[in-house]
Amino acid sequence: MASIEDRLSALGRVVQWQRDHIEIRQLIASYGPLVDTADQQVRAQRLAELWLEDGEYDIGGVHPCKGRAAIAAVFEERHFDQVPEGVCHVMGLPFITVTGDEASALNYSCVMRPDGDARFFPWRVSANHWELVRQQGRWWIRRRTNRLMTGDPQALALLRSIDTMMQDPSAAAPDPETT
Amino acid sequence: MASIEDRLSALGRVVQWQRDHIEIRQLIASYGPLVDTADQQVRAQRLAELWLEDGEYDIGGVHPCKGRAAIAAVFEERHFDQVPEGVCHVMGLPFITVTGDEASALNYSCVMRPDGDARFFPWRVSANHWELVRQQGRWWIRRRTNRLMTGDPQALALLRSIDTMMQDPSAAAPDPETT
Amino acid sequence: MASIEDRLSALGRVVQWQRDHIEIRQLIASYGPLVDTADQQVRAQRLAELWLEDGEYDIGGVHPCKGRAAIAAVFEERHFDQVPEGVCHVMGLPFITVTGDEASALNYSCVMRPDGDARFFPWRVSANHWELVRQQGRWWIRRRTNRLMTGDPQALALLRSIDTMMQDPSAAAPDPETT
Known about the structure:
Three copies of one chain form a homotrimer. By secondary structure, chain A is α+β, with helices and mostly antiparallel strands. Helices cover 36% and strands 34% of the residues of chain A. Chain A contains six helices and seven strands, in the order ααββααβββββαα. In chain A, strands 1, 2, 3, 4, 5, 6 and 7 form a seven-stranded mixed beta sheet that branches. In chain A, helix 2 packs across helix 3. The N and C termini of chain A lie close together (11 Å). The model of chain A has no long low-confidence stretch (mean pLDDT 95). Chains in contact: A-B, A-C, B-C.
């Protein structure tokens, strides 16, 4: 039987892994409500604060943005007009890996818009790769890459990152035997 | 180094936070299968048991219901006819905050229905705010507010509750340093 | 006050339950990226490795497959042609129960495909029941049953398994009082 000390340490490692998973889910779940209420610069800036100061957002079919100011600015182009009509960025289940203060997540997103009476349509369905870092005790986006699922070879390359993510030991909890 | 006692207590607080998050996800994940098989009063009543006895469900475009009997009754109006045709209440990732025995969750829902051969359509895409309480060791819905994402200002106001939810300390795990 | 030993054991049981939930979410989240990049046999075989060697996949509207080779082969029929056009298997939130090394999950899936310019359509919306087993320290699919949500009575029967799943004690965390 392991010592109390060893059992506490092993439990602590699993709990830390679980905490990282849940906090990263929270970050991704916050994106939709933040973006779908961003109808002016002050709200677009709040959304951009999910990223590091020099974070990057490379949007499929749009263009790459670097830095919070550029990220906030990209929503001015057409998104501000969509918000009052209703636009929904629905996030799919993320697959997550974590190594220390760095993490990756892979998920789909589906942007829904109204389509006349009692009907919506999926406007953009995309693959997303999130590079995340922990600073000051919370997770931030360092880089999010988004690619439309219209046969773009870059979208398929992005999705194939699941292969290496699944081989990452942190795809499962640490040290299950010793807890 | 903290004492064994202190480390156990700190771990216990994080584990409690994680448990609340997972149990609330379970509650939200149960909604779809329960509602999409509710084709008669006995099943609508079972669905209504997700709510407190005097719980509230305020459905966008329909009307507010108070109490389990009223909630079960609202599904008679048209939902019972949709179940045999196939109707899917797909729930989006929730953003969750918890304070003691009270919690909030914010997510999207997307109701899919068949649209002829080999095709479905999103019928209702909505923002949802869930007020939850723990009683007798499990979580119940006190009030769910649902608003269609068709530009309804109330839907946008509901989504902007993400601002205060993100500032809630329970949006992240408690006491990370001491675990 | 419980002894250190008892508190550690109680915490360990809750942490184990949480780990199972998160690892099962990871498995389900990996399905989309794996299938939507499966454009040749070698990738279909990698996808089939989510199943046990003699696992089963019973696809609504297609036919049941038994064993990894048969599961990999089923994607040759039309799926390989869809991958280069863009196809997205978006997984809904799972409801999960776990008993020792066996688990069940119930969720929706929604397969999105491009529909001309700046528009996608939900092609298949299905109910899924996953029977999972833990072997060699990780979770595998023993049997996945998938039924289209077009009014198929088998789809509704599958969804009604939520009734027994909700009564399973493992739908909530173990021993909340003693942690």
